[in-house]
Amino acid sequence: MITIVPAFGRIGEENAFAVLARAGQLAAEGRDIINLGIGQPDMPTPAHIVEAGIRALRDGHHGYTPAVGILPLREAVSRDLHRRHGVEVSPDSVMIVPGGKVTMFMAILMFGEPGAEILYPDPGFPIYRSMIEFTGATPVPVPIREANGFAFSAQETLSLITERTRLLILNSPANPTGGVTPKAEIDALVAGLAAHPDVAILSDEIYGTMTYDGEAHHSLLRYPEIRDRLIYLDGASKTYAMTGWRLGWSVWPKPLYDAARKLAVNAHSCVNAATQWAGVAALDGSQDCVAEMVAEFDRRRALVVEGLNALPNVSCITPKGAFYAFPNVGKTGWKAKALASALLEEAGVATIGGPDFGVHGEGYIRLSYANSSENILRALERMGSFLSERAGG
């Protein structure tokens, strides 16, 4: 009987895709399902980006590219980071990868091993913990608390660092909570990290263009004192509605760049050429499409927050970033995952139970407002009816 290595018994999943599959199955059976589970913009990729990809194929860009990505795209990433954050980033430190998860995978593989500890946000993107456990390292959750506006606490984060800590993962604007960590908290964290010079930092800023209410996103790239140990994660999936194109990028400190390049060579060779040229058009073209999408998400955010707070025994603080709401459902009498399952199966509304994002996710569910306003209002109506009829689980 064939066997695989024990590490695969520790690897987890991203339950949003399981919910997506179940929602699709129910829809195929004739059910009317409103999907507020998956974090995917419902807008199409902007036309000028699509045309750039088509043009690249017509121009013969059909072959392999460098494992780290084509130079024009790495240069475009550098320009974008300077425009948005006022930082100088050499194209030689930029790596083009197939989506955001690849950077997580690489970074956690570099630092994760038995005996090591890796800190990660909880509730947070589930692949963080999954990959940490896969490597045999000890996952150490950094609590992301509603009382703190779902921003991370510098003091609490620093208190969890030990002599075994190898990597600290940060995420703002955050999935699943929509929290945005203010500059003062980031300043305090960076100052405290001076006492821990051997701890690397992975900053997941994939939602960096999506903030609201005048809230500013403060990239960790702006702190020169940690640049020699900072891995920056970003990509096109959310900002440009390019989830299916699989285009991400990262910035690596010089000592780690070649290790990341080798992982790329061993894992995926390169990102497909046409997608990379589309990425150049996305970053160098007009950013009006981004502003329009964020404005639309903002309108939907208002509907979601108002509607959730009108539901029986549900409360929801206003998310400051990304396109997720993380309502507190603790007073409904339901466990979060059971409620999410019942909403899908009985009310036809797909959401994600908070525990799928970590041990501190109990009592919450995640809703994505990357769906249309019409569908959001219909979903809220169904949720209200369900909770009125089925209070207490």
Based on the model shown, name its key terms:
single chain, 393 residues, alpha/beta, 3-stranded antiparallel β-sheet, 13% strand
Strand numbers in spatial order across the main sheet: 2-8-7-6-5-3-4
Radius of gyration from the alpha-carbon trace, in angstroms: 21 Å
Percent in strands: 5-15%
Share of helix among residues? 25-40%
Categorize the overall geometry: globular
Intertermini distance: 43 Å
Structural category is alpha/beta
Unreliable parts? none
The total count of helices amounts to 12
Succession of helices and strands: HEHHEHEHEHEHEEEHHHEHEEEH
Number of separate strands: 12
Largest sheet: 7 strands, mixed
The whole-number mean of residue pLDDT values reads: 96
Q: Quick gist of this model?
A:
The chain is of the alpha/beta class and 393 residues long.
Describe this structure in words.
- Helices cover 40% and strands 13% of the residues.
- 46% of the residues are buried.
- A seven-stranded mixed β-sheet has the order 2-8-7-6-5-3-4, sandwiched between helices. A three-stranded antiparallel β-sheet has the order 9-12-11.
- It has helices at 15-28, 47-58, 71-85, 101-111, 126-135, 154-159, 183-193, 254-267, 273-284, 288-309, 336-347, 373-389, and strands spanning 34-35, 94-97, 117-122, 138-143, 165-171, 200-204, 230-235, 248-251, 324-325, 349-350, 352-353, 365-368.
- The termini are far apart.
- It has 393 residues and is of the alpha/beta class.
- Helix 2 packs antiparallel against helix 9.
- The mean pLDDT is 96.
